[in-house]
Recover the amino acids of this structure.
């Protein structure tokens, strides 16, 4: 039976919709998925003009209007909550600057449903399974996200080729998140882990919020995006919670989305990315893992202070520390941590197999980062042996 799909387009803010929405909506309307689909969207800091534009572009959609800009996390949550109340089976998030192959949604759903059929067969006593299938139910399916180019859109005969934006996202053990395969040319070769070990499964550390399908039951169990994150790393935190709760996150390599991605060097971005990676660690790690990584964390912080001073965001780095010096913020973090740890069905030693000791920020890579990667990778190899909980 075809599942009911809620399509959540990332929140509109300022002129984003006028800049990006038209092509993405056109690709949504050309999807070959046979089941019921409905579009939801949030308009942050809405004006009559922006709301009118959205209604003209998406007359079939249900649009949430927010007077203020409540952030990426809450904006998506507002639309997701509306969809869940209406009984949709799956929720798919797309950034408005993504353009989809015509079979993208169908392929994402197939990746989810194939696993459900396998689990049902196991319950009936048929224990045959494909290599890499670990029997966990899927909580999230990410499309293969490619960098958008004019000659590599769905109108092109070169389906799915080009440069990778994300083959799933990876968490560095100190909380940094990055896109696997970013900037590389896509070829259909066996996937490999960080250290070159062949991988026979499509498990990913966490899915990019730019093109991801969520299982309704999984969201109802682990919760939606943490709105305290506001923007950045909220997908990392949610993916981490899914793994903790016994679900898995996977890549659907045949589902292709093209992303008009541009690396932003805004000061505001660095503040949220730095603050939120620390929040994700504090919420999701076992306390003993936090103790083991603490020496590396202190060394990294000293390096980041130097980096921030050189790159002009020292004030924002200090503001990150100020956030963690406020008692009300610690009360929130500890309450959120208690809720997350109640979900725990999987040990850290199993989840961190998907984590990395290297930072792969291609846009900011330099000699000092390469040296740091050698040191932190060695440290991570050592403490992974010690983590048995």
């Amino acid at each position: 039976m075809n599942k009911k799909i809620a399509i959540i387009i990332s929140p509109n803010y300022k002129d984003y919709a006028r800049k990006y929405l038209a092509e993405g909506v056109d690709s949504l309307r050309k999807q070959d998925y046979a089941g019921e689909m409905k579009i939801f969207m949030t308009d942050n800091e809405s004006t009559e003009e922006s709301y009118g534009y959205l209604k003209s572009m998406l007359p079939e959609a249900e649009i949430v209007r927010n007077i203020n800009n409540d952030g990426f996390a809450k904006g998506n949550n507002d639309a997701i909550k509306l969809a869940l109340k209406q009984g949709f089976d799956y929720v798919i998030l797309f950034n408005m600057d993504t353009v989809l192959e015509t079979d993208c949604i169908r392929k994402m759903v197939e990746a989810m449903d194939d696993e459900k059929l396998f689990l049902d067969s196991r319950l009936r006593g048929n224990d045959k399974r494909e290599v890499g299938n670990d029997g966990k139910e899927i909580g999230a399916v990410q499309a293969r996200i490619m960098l958008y180019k004019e000659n590599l859109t769905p109108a092109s005969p070169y389906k799915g080729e080009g440069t990778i934006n994300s083959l799933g996202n990876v968490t560095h053990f100190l909380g940094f998140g990055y896109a696997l395969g970013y900037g590389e040319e896509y070829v259909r070769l066996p996937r490999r882990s960080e250290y070159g070990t062949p991988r026979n499964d499509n498990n990913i550390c966490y899915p990019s919020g730019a093109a991801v399908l969520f299982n309704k039951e999984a969201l109802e169990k682990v919760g939606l995006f943490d709105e305290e994150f506001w923007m950045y790393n909220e997908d990392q935190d949610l993916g981490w919670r899914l793994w903790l709760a016994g679900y898995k996150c996977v890549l659907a390599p045949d589902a292709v989305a093209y992303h008009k991605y541009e690396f932003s060097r805004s000061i505001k971005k660095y503040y949220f990315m730095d603050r939120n990676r620390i929040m994700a660690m504090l919420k999701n790690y076992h306390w003993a893992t936090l103790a083991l990584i603490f020496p590396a964390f202190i060394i990294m912080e000293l390096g980041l202070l130097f980096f921030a001073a050189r790159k002009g965001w020292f004030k924002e780095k200090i503001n990150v520390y100020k956030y963690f010096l406020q008692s009300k913020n610690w009360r929130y973090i500890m309450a959120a941590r208690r809720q997350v740890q109640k979900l725990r069905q999987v040990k850290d030693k199993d989840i961190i197999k998907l984590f990395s000791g290297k930072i792969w920020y291609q846009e900011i890579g330099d000699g000092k980062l390469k040296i740091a990667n050698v040191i932190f990778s060695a440290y991570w190899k050592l403490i992974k042996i010690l983590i048995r909980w």
In short: The longest helix spans residues 287-311. The radius of gyration is 21 Å. Residues 263 and 308 are 18 Å apart (CA to CA). The chain has twelve helices and 13 strands.
